[in-house]
């Protein structure tokens, strides 16, 4: 019998299908897998119960437009890194916590209510922690790619098109700021992105029809982002690399999307800092980090990589506390209104 901590090809197809369409009906997912809907649902439940794969949710465009998203480097005293990472992982405004090689001990992804909340995070949360020796923030100005758009590469283009279906037309105008009811849905879906509409209705005290309508609107407007995640220990891409780079401002609009299109690149963002570009890749091996950097240098001579680091441990990823193998343990809501 297959070990419960391993992924077979059918598991990878299932995960990839849910990366394409996290809330697609089981009948659609099952067709791509060539199994019954009951089998697909049971297989997903096994993966989710073991913490090997999960679907989370978080705020989309409105966070960048009306609030503040930043990457924060934290330097720690020797021997204090794991303890500090565990403490920071419990904070609702800190979406992700990574322990890293190189010049940065911890890499945080932070979502807070506004620019003014960032220094308060420095002074009230990070500064008082014993063992924190330095903090540096890099405010995101634009995402060229982010984790919800990355795929594990286990399905064909035809399968992807069948799962995704016809593109839905986004609503007109800028994405709205979520109201109290929308926020409740966003936080609930962070714990289970495939939660049934009936369960969401019970949890939020709204009618099922209202919940269905609101969730659809939030997804179309990209106010709500759903992401299917996988534990790195069982992923074909267990190595995470982050590059901090600089590029001429007039070339950023051309190079950013081109970097984001590379299959290894999971996240690419421009930032306001001493460097202006952060690139994160998921790779098959440690040597691949050098090969990717060499390719970027050849393909994009305008890019100067100033620093690089490998993720040593993922303490928290987009609202989920992880164990040492990267398996999901429990959810800490990403609540920038906290």
TrEMBL record:
It comes from the Bacteria. SMART domains: HTH_ASNC (SM00344). InterPro entries: AsnC-type_HTH_dom, Dimeric_a/b-barrel, Tscrpt_reg_AsnC-like, Tscrpt_reg_AsnC/Lrp_C, WH-like_DNA-bd_sf, WH_DNA-bd_sf. Keywords: DNA-binding, Transcription, Transcription regulation. Residues 72-142 form the Transcription regulator AsnC/Lrp ligand binding domain. Transmembrane segments: none annotated. Residues 7-48, 179-218 form the HTH asnC-type domain. PANTHER family: LEUCINE-RESPONSIVE REGULATORY PROTEIN, TRANSCRIPTIONAL REGULATOR AZLB. This is Lrp/AsnC family transcriptional regulator. It comes from Actinomadura graeca.
